[in-house]
Design a protein that fits this description.
Structural Genomics Hypothetical 15.5 Kd Protein In mrcA-pckA Intergenic Region, Chain A; alpha+beta; Ribosomal Protein S4 Delta 41, Chain A, domain 1; five-stranded antiparallel β-sheet; 210 residues
């Protein structure tokens, strides 16, 4: 399946909740969920909603999580299958693995306004891990890793403005960042209370366990 290239706000409306796909726009009055809190499509607010089946509820939860992290179905399912082979509660391990993706870490550190933008930063060689250039968004960070914007990219206007914006954002407990620099450190494994996602991971486990 090809990557979705349509309006990001349409995905939020389909799932009925904010997926924070448009960065700063999602926390302003321009957010589509606040303006058009109904399913997309020609019938709009008059569309008849079908009674959801158990499978349908599980599918929507899976789609919601996949869209939040911006993954294709194959990437998403492969990550789940790897999580199944690890010790611990599968649903929590799965979300931990998604959180540890380099593109998500860049987003969590506030270096990018959305995961999509973070994925572009990584793919365009703007990011280094432990001093080594990494251009793979799916790269899994580990405890002790130091993630930073590469020196030659710091001069770009996009990143000089990020330093000021970053200082105003909250930070999850498993990451730290250097004051006044676009550099962060992985302190620990992601904790489920830090995820802050409108996702019930157990429904995703049930969906893939059929």
């Amino acid at each position: 399946m090809a990557r979705y290239t349509g309006p990001a706000c349409r995905l939020c409306r389909r799932e009925g909740t904010k997926l924070f796909l448009k960065g700063d726009r999602c926390v302003t009055a321009k957010c589509s969920i606040d303006r058009k809190n109904y399913f997309p499509g020609q019938h709009g607010p008059n569309a008849r909603r079908k009674k959801e089946t158990e499978y349908g509820i599980q599918l929507r939860e899976k789609q919601k999580a996949r869209r939040i992290y911006g993954l294709l179905e194959r990437q998403f399912k492969n990550t789940f299958q790897k999580a199944q082979k690890k010790d611990g509660i599968t649903g929590e391990v799965f979300l931990q693995m998604l959180e540890k993706r380099l593109d998500n870490v860049i987003y969590r550190l506030g270096f990018a306004t959305s995961r999509q933008q973070a994925r572009q930063f990584v793919g365009h060689n703007h990011v280094a891990v432990n001093g080594k250039k990494i251009n793979l968004p799916s790269y899994m960070v580990k405890k002790g890793d130091v993630i930073e914007v590469r020196k030659k990219s710091l001069k770009k206007k996009l990143f000089t403005e990020t330093v000021d914006r970053r200082s105003k954002l909250p930070l999850v407990s498993w990451l730290s960042w250097a004051e006044g620099e676009l550099k962060g450190t992985v302190l620990d494994e992601p904790k489920i209370e830090d995820f802050g996602l409108p996702v019930k991971e157990q429904l995703i486990v049930e969906f893939y366990s059929k």
